[in-house]
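Minutes, project check-in
Item: structure for the 206-residue chain
Input as provided by the requester:
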Amino acid sequence: MTQDRRLIPLSALQHYAFCPRQCALIHNEQAWADNYLTAQGNLLHKRVDSGDPETRNGTKFERAVMVSAEKLGITGKLDLIEKDLKTGALTPVEYKKGKSKPGNWDKIQLCAQGLCLEEMTGQAVAEGYLWYWQTRKREFVAFDKRIRQQTLAVIQQVQTIFLSGELPKPKYEKKCKACSLFDICNPKLIEHDNSATYIKQLFSQD
């Protein structure tokens, strides 16, 4: 890893896959704002992280495990790792508020957890699970070629944003309503703000 490249938090991958502007606001601009959704998420992870390691039915459960993959440039804390004591297989489990998402942003974060475990242990990690608070159900995620390629692409894109320090332009979408940074980002206002273009045209006139 080069000296000018900082390790990317696993959460930044989820932020970028959800919205590149959100990722830059949080990780470059150090902007953050809590709403009821983030409060729920904080409470959920506090409960998960507070659990002690245990073994049940041939599976060992480890909580709040720090991981990193320096070759890929990513690091973070895993909510839960399940280890099959018979086969040695490792399975990451990520806890999320709400319910299953239409996009892949949660799956990309989970896949990155698998990539960290692979680099650290040298063994293949084929799958993981997303557990959603609202539905109280697990969603199986296979770490197939497609999701791995998407995850590696997002890692590169986040690294580019980190190095450039740029703030992507806003693009208002329905999902913006659930973002805790909505008031800071002002996507509706800024998306249609033509003042910069007007000033550029004004000073370019003969």
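Outcome recorded: The chain has a mean pLDDT of 83.
No further action items on this chain.
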